[in-house]
Amino acid sequence: MIRPEAMQNYMNSEKIANMVIKHVPAQPAKRINNSSVHNIDNQFYLIFDWIDGRSLDHNEVTNEHCDQMGTILAELHKIDFSQLDMAMPQMDVSKETDWAFYLNKGKNESLEWNELLDSTIQQLYEWNARAKRSSQLLSSDTVISHRDLEPKNVMWQQNSPIIIDWESAGYINPMRDLMETAMYWSVDNTGNVDKDRFSTFINGYRKRVSSLSADWRMVLESGFLGKLDWLEYSLKRSLWIECTDQDEQRMGTAQVIGTIEDLKRYDRIIPEVENWMSI
């Protein structure tokens, strides 16, 4: 919450969550005194009704779950949010992430991800450039969506899903959101993407849209952006730049390693997924 934009982001995301419940199964925070975010002794809280359900591990996800979530994502993309009057943030194409700064700082502090970051740093700059170029080209076509619709953010009561954790909700290109979410629901615990689950998710989405076409390579390359943003945030936590305690620092360090490996896997699978979408 120390970030200047954090409060407005939470307020906007809860406005979105409160609107989508008319169309898709979702769980917004409770509104008290016309507010979703509550400041008590300078600690900030969101309060939710209890859900008697659970989220799925990646290896528990079935084709039926993928079909259902693909259809729900399509319904989410069709919602008219115009009455919210939320301005779309302008993409800052001038910002260049200085990965060498984080590497040098990590070396000074002898952090365990130094060698991995050092061996990948040129790829990070390349992925960054490709992602920004693709995202800029896709930015003229946007919807409002959850933007983090992973299995961990869906609670299941038997076969009925409830979407939680709307804090990342906002504008996104619909095909980028489709690709990223289909990946979330088709990846296993080792990071490999199951083609059958992926195709089932896409077909679930197709049930609610008239046509589905895009420059899939461009769409997939834009998917680097979220992963790179998460890597930079994790680096800041690991390096105590944006961090409040030891547990968060350790989590940031672990996330740096995991995110770099995830980026490398994603780069390898792009041609394969592009081929799946062109069949």
UniProtKB/TrEMBL annotation:
SUPFAM superfamilies per record: Protein kinase-like (PK-like)
Record domain Aminoglycoside phosphotransferase: where: 44-206
Pfam families assigned: APH
Name used for this protein in its record: Phosphotransferase
Higher taxonomy: Bacteria, Bacillati, Bacillota, Bacilli, Bacillales
